[in-house]
Amino acid sequence: MMRTSFNDGWQTRPKVNPFAELSGSTVPFRPVTLPHDAMIERERAAPGGEVTMEGGAGAYFPGGTYEYRKTFSVPEEHRGKRILFEFEGVYRDAVVFINGDYAGQRPFGYAHFHIDADRFLRFGEDNEIRVEARTHRDSRWYTGAGIYRDTWMLVGEVVRIAPDGVRVTTPDIDGERAVVELATRVENDSTAVRTVDVVTEIRDADGSVVAGDVSKVTVLPGEPATVRQRLYVRAPLLWSTDSPTLYAATVTLKDLDTETVTFGIRSLSLDPERGLRINGETVKLRGACVHHDNGVLGAATFARAEERRVHLLKDAGFNAIRMSHNPMSKAMLDACDRLGMLVVDESFDVWTSGKSEFDYSLNFPEWWERDIEAMVAKDFNHPSVIMYSIGNEIPETGSPFGAAWGRKLAEKVRSSDHTRYVTNAVNGMLAVMSELGKLLRQSQERATEDGAGINTLMADAGDMMNAISASGLVTEKTAESFAVLDVAGMNYAEARYALDRDLFPNRIILGTETFPTRVDGNWRLVKQHGHVIGDFTWTGWDYLGEVGIGRPQYATPGAPRPSHTAPYPYLLADCGDLDITGHRRPASYYREIVFGLRTRPYIAVRRPEHHGRTWAGSPWAWSDTLAGWTWPGFEGSPVTIEVYGDADEVELLLDGRSLGRQPVGEDHRFRTEFDTTYEPGELLAVAYRDGTETGRHTLRSATGRVELRAEADRQVITANGGDLAYIALTLTDPDGTLHTAADRPVTVEVSGAGVLLGFGSADPASEERFDATERRTYEGRALAVLRPTGPGKIHLLASAPECDPVEVLVDVD
Model pTM? Predict the structure, then answer.
């Protein structure tokens, strides 16, 4: 079918009661271009004010109901054709009306779905489509609201290739040739029997035809037919993370329809000794869990935003993404294919047992099969997708009925796609929550016998989760739920890795969610055990909602332990290796060293204002550090410096004066500390192995006048296809050293062929808005995102107090 973007020309507003509107209480529509997040534009409120999405879970944004409408014309020549509208994601409880009539709905906010539209349309005149979306206390994280992913208009003949109707597999590969099997679903909505030619060509990355076939298919009225073709690609170039080679398959129904899909030629295999193999080579998954929001853009899903995230995550050392806890966008899947990033795509965060008052558990029993089908249809041709996850921390996994549900979901996935593996991200503690009291009493008794108390056991959430997950109770209660899977996904349960090698010798384990503070030990286990195929940290990229779970916290004598969730105005989880602007934080460089991908050391400085205080951060919280040596007002004050490295030892020098040498490397958890007093200058770390230098890292104090700088990520962008320009705004000294202690408001003005789409910083607790033209920097940084409106030039002018204004020009083709 012919696909045309349907993103332009929409209007939106908060939905109003029609009876109230009749009485004069009107709310005007305003124009928007999709994708669009209606929630990110709302005013946040502290608890006690306007009803919020479970407060901190949704970043203190209010829920609500929103409506979108668009007027469009359908030419007379389209009469008799099939017309569909495709929505890649509407959050949530989407209901679609065409010319005032109900046309369809989709409760799940992450499913892509189609609306059969032609029966409702008026040909040769204007039509109106209206979409309602509602969200209210239905998630544990920031979801956004509205039509937040792309929309499409599909037009085709009555005999046509079905949407998502071309599926490609590569079941047999060797060095000389690859077998490429295509299954094409052809539909016939006419009243006549039709026989058509199906012409298929496979092209390589250069556009050369490398295989082809012609088949005939007879399609009966109302009875879709599947055409299977087996083609052979000689000397295939295989898809991998290091060499993500893609092919294109074009399937044509002669004189009727054409569909082109991209795919990769690669093989997957799995066993407990060699783990996961791609094209015959063992691959350990260096994984990042990510949420679906795009930081300063909210939940709006633009292709460039997704591509940029994948690119930056790969640059940081990750080779796999787990989309948590919902299906990944098509745009991100495309980026993972192109850039060579592996994907674990996840279906649901809930099944029948809800986690929020009005979440998807209310719809799951009726809709789960259709939503699984939609996820698989979206993913099928993407070589980056290696595994489907049927859930995350599902409480039912510890019960027989929950295991039965898991079996149904796993078999549904396999019947839809037998070429990939099935996992489930199981949290052992949650799986036995109903019996947790008994287990804790037993643990307390054992701890008392060992001379410790229950408070010692509970002092660290990671230790507690591990102790419970490794218990015999969890072993017994989760055995069937794990047995229905190809890969046992485990959240915060590394204590099971060695244990299960003996208890379940055929079990293959994936650390589907782990604490960032334990990556060194976890990665050692991944390397040691063939049946453990990888580790996914929570999280690779910081996100909106679940506010403050990774924030720095310090104990106060006599005060209660700090809460899990931070109070308003906290906005971010504050736990990503990369912050919401894409800037790498110290934990990211530490992880890169642990992965064996960085030989140079890395310096991170603890904030001197907290020196001497007792750390009380959660296991999701990295140390309260910053890669900066600019601390005005703390001259002569004590400061602790962390140095990360994979070497025998590291020497730290301040202005050439040695502060000593310390052992570092794996036996010392790849880190060491130096205590000194702060004085401006140059801090240098030099790593040594066997007495030979292996690398160095330098931090310099910012001095002199503060300057504002602006830099675009690319000088030329395109006017369509979801492209964006990212403008990094930084405060530096005249030599270009980032000034982390000179934050101030920055104002931007955008003119020309683009608009300001989002503007913000990584400040985890700001009350500033992302749709404003002024934003205060955080640790010397801010980020502006521009959306092109057509060909030409986008001009951005930025200014800040006591700084010369700066400007950036971006060309739009």
Answer: 0.96
